[in-house]
Specification:
Low-confidence stretches: 32-43
CATH superfamily of the largest domain: Glutaredoxin
Shape: elongated
Order of helices and strands: HEHEHEHEEH
CATH architecture of the largest domain: 3-Layer(aba) Sandwich
Strand order of the largest sheet: 1-3-2-4-5
Number of domains: 2
Largest sheet: 5 strands, mixed
Structural class: alpha/beta
Strand content: 15-25%
Radius of gyration: 20 Å
Length: 153
Amino acid sequence: MEIYKKIVRPALLIIIAISFGLVLVRYINKRSEPKPSESTDMPQQKNILSLKNSFQEEVIKKKGPVVVIFSATWCPSCVNMKEIINTVASKLPKISFIMIDVDEFSALATEQGVQSIPAYLFFDKGKIVSRTTGYMDEDKFTQTIKSSFGVHS
């Protein structure tokens, strides 16, 4: 009975509290999703794609530089980066940008070592050359891309 009071009971209370917190977060996120009439999609540049085929086809087999962006619709920093990504992509037409939703492709995100979003993986000739995470303003994002691929202004 002593073990129950000291170990099992507190552990159960922690598990219940965490479960409740996760349910509450999901509920809040669900309520804040835009309604179908409130589309948040922006017109995209021709060099910005969503992952439609396999990661192998769209990233690993590409000959040129590819920026892979892992994001989610519920992530404020990810949503704020959309416009910046579109602007930077229009200025760097020789670089492909692939947007991947971590909710849709969670196994791929895990396989690529994504632990926080937005996450940016920079591939050149199918090999990862750099990675970073977080919100960046347009200048920092552009500079990060250029330094990852060895492009000098």
